[in-house]
Amino acid sequence: xxxxxxxxxxxxxxxxxxxxxxxxxxxxxxxxxxxxxxxxxxxxxxxxxxxxxxxxxxxxxxxxxxxxxxxxxxxxxxxxxxxxxxxxxxxxxxxxxxxxxxxxxxxxxxxxxxxxxxxxxxxxxxxxxxxxxxxxxxxxxxxxxxxxxxxxxxxxxxxxxxxxxxxxxxxxxxxxxxxxxxxxxxxxxxxxxxxxxxxxxxxxxxxxxxxxxxxxxxxxxxxxxxxxxxxxxxxxxxxxxxxxxxxxxxxxxxxxxxxxxxxxxxxxxxxxxxxxxxxxxxxxxxxxxxxxxxxxxxxxxxxxxxxxxxxxxxxxxxxxxxxxxxxxxxxxxxxxxxxxxxxxxxxxxxxxxxxxxxxxxxxxxxxxxxxxxxxxxxxxxxxxxxxxxxxxxxxxxxxxxxxxxxxxxxxxxxx
Length: 415
What we know:
Layout: E1 2-5, E2 16-21, E3 28-29, E4 34-39, E5 44-48, E6 53-57, E7 65-66, E8 71-76, H1 102-105, H2 109-114, H3 119-128, H4 146-154, H5 191-206, E9 209-217, H6 219-231, H7 241-255, E10 261-264, E11 267-270, E12 276-278, E13 280-281, E14 287-288, E15 291-292, H8 300-315, E16 329-332, E17 353-357, E18 361-369, E19 372-388, H9 394-409
Parallel strand pairs: 12-16, 16-17
Antiparallel strand pairs: 1-8, 2-4, 2-7, 3-6, 4-5, 6-8, 9-19, 10-11, 12-15, 13-14, 17-19, 18-19
Helix pairs in contact: 3-4, 7-8, 7-9
């Protein structure tokens, strides 16, 4: 038997929830074939079979929390052995309680184990008070599978299960709590929405948030973008203002390295690589933050290509776990949906700051021309930096924003 283990390299702010099995218990699987899906606040992640063989599920409730290193199943590469009586080593995914004694839960656990039944199958048998000897098995060697039990129950083969204490009952699917007001309705949280909410609350509780706001004139980057698009080329169509925002952020982070950092109880960790995450909305489902790694090594068009690729994969559900981890700084371009200022834009823990960019709009501004004040119309936006005040003070915050605005307003990078 080879264990199926949840990856243990859990990263910052990430919580696993069990989404679903991709293969039924008792089915034959190939090595590296996806068998289960986990969900985080950032991405859906597949778990693959470590070897070829016959799949055994452990009893895991859909939507339950999964710890890094948890055992969720096994693959038998030979004849199905009898289930072990001892609990497996390592953390076990949280789920419904294991079957109890025959007096409380129907068929004997010992009988199921002797027949080579998986824990998930034994739990189903107990819940529906079914004798596995009455079910034709379709698994390897005629073993009864999870699917076999469900099919038998649907055909009316189950007996009425004996009464049992409410605490021993298997957990039902989560339902909204409370009673809606007149004319309202309750919509259950999705796993991703619940995870985002928990992450946001944790961030606000952890870090003292302070926000500074500057104005920025987009005239220079609008002209540069128009010139590049006029030249054409394979990358011109994908060039967005966000690529310029990333480029300016790299320059500003290089000028104020402490903002590219993380707080520890006894030190501040300043990162050499600049890994910039960009918030990407997924409609009503929430948002994800794909990361451009080692952004200090890329050009403007390199940012454009990376953003186009990451955004497309984010909206088609094809991001990998590596695409959403390792960020050291985040940009929230909230102005694309119309807001002028967002405050505070909540920090993506354990980072130390997050940049917010408001809606681009033409405004009347005062400019000095030949020593005289004049009124002009310019494409303007508000840009904010929300900081973890444990790490960063107002001086560094304003220095960063001044540099960021300077890069955007005097853009002259030919690359």
